[in-house]
């Protein structure tokens, strides 16, 4: 999709500001599967409130659904190879039931047996995943033959696993006339571009900050090339040499071309009225295909990143226990200064959307509200690291209640787009997320 879709613009998430207190550091360990028993009592009260408010789930149900989602993800990895003619995707339905979609094909009977043996429910669908992927390629080819006035209407495309069809994002829903082979595809309105959040002050204060720990969701200011931004820290981790790093959004680096050089953008902790001491520099930044940055901690700030927590202002943290892959229907929660903890479900995976002149590929979307001030932070499912907040379709609104009403009137709903953390790790051998 890159040749065509990369030409089209999509909404860009705004940077975030958070300011939180200290937390005890956790040692790094190999990722482990989250256990439901005993885990619910370890979740922060603020996260539990968001789970119940946004998902109408108990903490135990939230963890159970998250674990089911990862079991589906593992099944899907093997099913794509073993049953290519029949496999049509996996998802959790509204009740949290694990579903495997299967189309007619030579390997369908074997696929049904494997799915049922794994404890999943089978749903018959018309088209296999490979058939839908072929339609995506055909769409890309068709767009390349169209004049810019038509081709530039399309800003992104995704496979809707649950409804077994394609979804296109367009500037003008009524003005896009699709070819016959795409008559079954749904077209939805693209959101308007939102500007990044600029800081009101990035002047260092006179006194240094206490050496408090920095967690996922905490505030930092980035300064480079004469431009300053405010963002949320992502997941703490270690690089290939074992040094402490933080994985946040690529668009939070104001001088991306200089990442990893002596001219790299600098990262500062933030407090009311200004910035504190420098905490690191941008070692690597990616915005095309995957939206992420890796901040390498300064020696003086290294111990502040030696924890595996995610939090919101004034709240206790949730400890990250491993990483996860996005699965449609799986419960997710994100942290952010503007909206705090908000929760939803994964609505699309392996999605391609355009962000200005760049392409955000392999992304997933969620049903969460994220406003200006929430981008760059963490998205979790259960206690597993899932992704980095990248773009929102409601970032221009002042509060989520307004965003909910406006999108409802337009027949839409809030969406938050993200880069999967496992894509970032795969692209950077030796990079790890801190876990316990």
TrEMBL record:
Record has Signal as a keyword: yes
UniProt KW keywords: Hydrolase, Protease, Signal
InterPro entries (alphabetical): Peptidase_S1_PA (IPR009003), Peptidase_S1_PA_chymotrypsin (IPR043504), Streptogrisin_prodomain (IPR035070)
Residues in the signal sequence: 1-29
GO term, biological process aspect, one: proteolysis
Keyword Signal: yes
Coiled coil regions in record: none
GO molecular function: peptidase activity
Protein name in the entry: Protease
Annotated source species: Rhodococcus opacus
